[in-house]
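BUG: 3D viewer hangs when loading the predicted structure for this chain

Environment: internal workstation, default settings.
Expected: structure renders.
Actual: progress bar stalls at 90%.

Input used:
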Amino acid sequence: MKVNISKGIKGYSGTSDGGVYYYHPKLKVCLMREYVVPDNKPNTDRTKAIMANLKLITPSAAYKQNFKDYLYGYNDLKEHRDKPVLSWYNLYIRMLFAMQDSIPGVSLLTLSRAQIYAENLPCKTVAAAVEAGLLPPVPEYARLTQEI
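Structure tokens produced before the viewer hung:
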């Protein structure tokens, strides 16, 4: 939801009245979402553990740039124009979960950079992920070959 702030503070961020307000630099607008406290369920703990483990992988700057370049092509596809993805990280996480679903024996709870290289997993490069069907093809995806 777009938000109009009457005081004209362009970069306001924080919580107020049950909402979280933040400025999105790409869209150049202030956005608001409802503040939701996640339920404390076993699946929530598993998701926390997965995200903590994925943070330890720390992709290289060149790999991140390849994902950002891929993101432009992805958002230009006809089926994604109405609801674009705003961050490379969202596609990165989507790709990793797709890899876990398609390759038996890969668990995001234990995935490491060493395992990615040892097993030559398709998340090693963006081009390999597209060729493995983890991401949809975009124009010139073959040049996105920087390793994680």
